Amino acid sequence: MIDTLIIGGGAAGLYLASFHPEATILEQRGECGQKLILTGGGRCNYTNAAGPEEMSELFHGNKAFIKRVLYAHTSMDIIEHFKTLGIQPSEEEMGKIFPLRGDAASVRSALLKRVHRIIKGKAVSIEKNDDAFIVHMENGTLEARRVVIATGGESFPHTGSDGSGYAILKALGHTIVPTAPALAPIALSSNLAKAEGISLKARLGVGKRAEYGDIIITRRGISGPAALNISRELADSNEIEITFSEASIKELRESMGARTVKNALAIPPRLTEALIGSLADRKCGNLSRKEEEEIQGRLSHFRSRAKAIREGAMNTRGGVSASEINPKTMESKIVPGLYISGDVIDVDGPTGGYSLSFAFATAFIISRALAVPDV
Ligand SMILES: Cc1cc2nc3c(=O)[nH]c(=O)nc-3n(C[C@H](O)[C@H](O)[C@H](O)COP(=O)(O)OP(=O)(O)OC[C@H]3O[C@@H](n4cnc5c(N)ncnc54)[C@H](O)[C@@H]3O)c2cc1C
């Protein structure tokens, strides 16, 4: 019988194995860490310099649970652990931590060095009898004393995180909070394609939530950190309000009457054209009050129907309810001996190294729990 079986050799599963090499990993893709090598644009933004208090404020989900997890293994602990694996940190803007040398593949290799045993296979269900878990795979069964679910969420399913962990946990009696894309680019019903490629700072509002920060106009809508961070809210609403510029009327009135609107505004002319069409080429001095108001409305309260683009999502909102997991050990409160880590949990954070930090912290907590001998 296997002592500890980790289902899923992604970020959380590999990080756990780097503390607990005697564990066996069951990985459906055979090759571990397929998502990990894509992270941070291939450079792996593996944590953030923010402390646990600041970090936990930024996550969505059960705050008390998130705090317990992030205090148990902080970003400093993650950085130190990676140093022991030969990965030195380099801090970039917004506290993002990347490897000083190397890339995401070198982070994966560093973690893999500690892994002793990987079995290729897909878990489809788990049964528990008195002494052991029976893990049913597509082609066979495994028996294990303890099982860790590290199957990830449902973003980038071609990397292996296809959401199958939810069904396994649900069948064992866990509550699955409905899932939706998070950290996703946004498709808009309004066509801004004329302004494709323009980057700027904007305020984005969805329902009661707002984000201010960098966005980039894409062929289908918007992307960039502020768009990714607000995308999760589109599970509750299908409308977004974008403030591209606050001061359009003032700018227009103060500008030379002979200048065209697109040359008088502080935002790029190509974006002004995309937003207000032919009004962009009018002289500022010739605008009626109604036209000025129309321009300000489009620039400050641009409303469009919007949808998170599932295929581009980097994270998942929802998942297994955190209230059913003991944050001290990450052991299920419903099935003793079953541990749960990473994206599969109903917790999601912003861009900037937060998602991996959470996955790593949950994995560390499990490694600590597994190290305590049974009495
Ligand atoms: C393009 C992209 C870029 C990202 N960049 C960053 C970044 O720079 N910084 C950051 O903090 N976060 C980033 N993230 C998010 C981060 O990758 C995830 O938060 C992290 O990988 C979650 O780790 P995990 O172990 O929970 O899941 P995953 O890493 O998704 O691993 C889950 C593993 O489980 C396996 N599996 C699933 N179901 C089964 C099953 N039934 N049986 C057997 N195996 C199974 C999968 O094949 C997979 O290998 C990015 C995500 C994407 C998609």
How would you explain this protein's 3D organization?
It is a single chain. Helices cover 30% and strands 27% of the residues. It has 375 residues and is of the alpha+beta class. It has two domains: 2-181 and 314-371, FAD/NAD(P)-binding domain (3-Layer(bba) Sandwich); 186-308, no CATH class. Strands 1, 2, 7, 8, 9, 10 and 21 form a seven-stranded mixed sheet that branches. The protein is elongated. The chain starts with a strand and ends with a helix. The mean pLDDT is 95. Bound molecules: flavin-adenine dinucleotide. Flavin-adenine dinucleotide (FAD) binds next to helix 1, strand 2, helix 2, helix 7 and helix 13. Residues 7-13, 26-29, 34-36, 38-40, 44-45, 122-123, 150-152, 155-156, 160-162, 164-165, 314-315, 342-343, 353-356, 359 line the site of flavin-adenine dinucleotide (FAD).
